[in-house]
Amino acid sequence: MGQALLASIPAGVSSLSWWMLLGMMALGGAGCLLWYALFSLMWIRPIGALSALWAYYRAPGEGEICFSALFTRSRSRRSLAPAPLRAGLLALIQAGVLLCLLCPAGLILPRSLAGPGLRTAVGCLLAAAVVRLFLPSARRRAWAVASVLFLAVLAAALLWNLPNLIPAFKLVLQDAVQCSSFLFALSGAGLQLVLRGGGQLGAGMVSLQTAPGSGGGPWLPHPVCAGLQAQLQALLSLLLHLLLGLIFLCAQLVPQRNVWLQVLLWGFLCLFGIERFLQALRRFPGASRVRRAAAGLCSLLGWLLLERLCGGVFQAAFWGLLWAGSLGTAGLLLGDSGWYFALLEDYRDALLWHVQPHPRISRQHRPPP
Question: N or C end: fewer C-beta atoms under 10 angstroms in the chain?
Fold first, then answer.
């Protein structure tokens, strides 16, 4: 379970989610962190429920969450007529979220945001690409080691900025309710922008977490265990995002003390972003690497063309796709919430009370005698 949590860090804090966090903080201020945390905590249990339902419905060879397959199999279990239009709409929404993973992360970053510098960012990206050549994605232990190194750098950054954490945290709390005056570029954006930024960021992160799915992992005795693992992964991802946001605020307050720490963190985030990009490419149909590379290149060129031609329409489409993914997740959970509670009862009866389990639930997920 711990190895699975470590292996989930690259997907949870990839460069796309990190740039989304920076972009929303630039638009809505530092107070977005508080509202993002509250919105995400409301989604922790639904993410676990969705993962538990998919662990029950999926076939043995399937890994990632598939919205359309989950919807179709849920209706088949209830002996309802198939709804191809709604299943196709869910598949289209998930394909849109998948395209978001192929979006160049810098396009959603406001041009006015001061980052580590263009040369530094390009250098971190090239260094991460070189390191990625020696980290095969099939080996979960290799990515677990990379995650441990990332956590060590993050802990060192927190200790180095220990005197600045309390002022940064106080700034987040005050800016969340607009109790502080305008201090610098990441405060005083207005209560409406702070609330909208936190909610929008939370919805986007939920879509990015649920649509790709975890895929694989250790054998679990029950679908509810898979739901618990998904909740722990989402909670770990939220905690890391908040810590990275606080470190970024400290770097804005005291930039001279955080130059090398920023470079190391950006290097890890670029490495995780490259792996997330490759994971998104593997989900395209077609087994050949040439087709996947061509699909990724076409997606990148398409995003670049849309951003150059449309500008604000591009960002609206980007966030619209992520909101659609969040609403699609909520619709799936509302339609099959009763069966999730039946799974909870079966878990309680079979693995806690050791009594006669729920009669309608298959025994395929129960541990061998």
Answer: C
Q: Are 247 and 161 in contact (CB under 8 A)?
A: yes
3-state SS, one letter per residue, for 133-183:
CCCCCCCHHHHHHHHHHHHHHHHHHHHHCHHHHHHHHHHHHHHHCCCCCCC
Which DSSP string do the residues of 253-313 spell out, in sequence order? HSGGGGHHHHHHHHHHHHHHHHHHHHHHHHTSS-S-HHHHHHHHHHHHHHHHHHHHHHTHH
Tens of pLDDT, residue by residue over 43-55, are 889 888 998 888 8
Give how far the C-alpha of residue 208 lies from the chain's centroid of Cα atoms, to the nearest Å.
4
Q: Which residues contact 327 (CB under 8 A, 6 or more apart)?
A: none
Confirm if 237 and 10 have CB atoms less than 8 A apart. Answer: no
**Residue 362 phi, psi dihedral angles, 5° rounding:** -65, 155
Q: Are 16 and 103 in contact (CB under 8 A)?
A: yes
Query: What does pLDDT average to in each consecutive run of 10 residues of the chain (369 residues)?
Result: 80 79 80 88 89 85 80 88 88 81 54 51 71 69 83 92 88 79 65 81 80 54 86 90 89 82 84 78 63 66 67 74 86 88 86 72 50
309 — phi, psi (to 5°)? -85, -40
Instruction: Provide the whole-model pTM.
Output: 0.83
